[in-house]
Amino acid sequence: CLKGEVMQNPIIYQIRIKEAVGAQWAEWFDPLAIQPAPTGDTLLVGPLRDQAELHGVLLKILLLGVMGPA
User: Fold this and answer.
1) Category of 46 on φ-ψ map: left (φ > 0), alpha (ψ -120 to 50) or beta
2) pLDDT tens profile 14-54
3) pTM score, two decimals?
4) Residue pair 25/60 in contact by the 8 Å Cβ criterion
5) How far apart, in whole angstroms, are the C-alpha atoms of residue 31 and residue 36?
6) How many CA atoms lie within 13 A of 58 on its CB side?
7) Alpha-carbon torsion 29, 31, 36, 41, what sign?
């Protein structure tokens, strides 16, 4: 999300990653927040404007190598 840009009716996503993702990745996943779960999983939580932005986040997860086989 560009700074100062107003999202109208963004969808709040919660994406569970079955591995720990460190806080050092926070800027890369912006505008999603990284939330560690007690199970060792990680939640990415926050607003995304559209499917293109969601696709970009999923691609980043894939590039990290933490997304298991489909």
Assistant:
1) left
2) 999 999 999 999 999 999 999 999 999 999 999 999 999 99
3) 0.78
4) no
5) 16
6) 9
7) negative
Q: Which of these, 22, 15, 26, lies nearest to 48 by C-alpha position?
A: 15
User: What distance in Å separates the CA atoms of residue 47 and residue 62, rounded to the nearest whole number?
Assistant: 20
The number of residues in the chain equals 70
What is the per-residue DSSP string for 15-49? Answer: EEESS---GGGHHHHTTSEEEE-TTS-EEEEEEE-
Q: Which of 21, 23, 35 is nearest to 63 (CA)?
A: 21
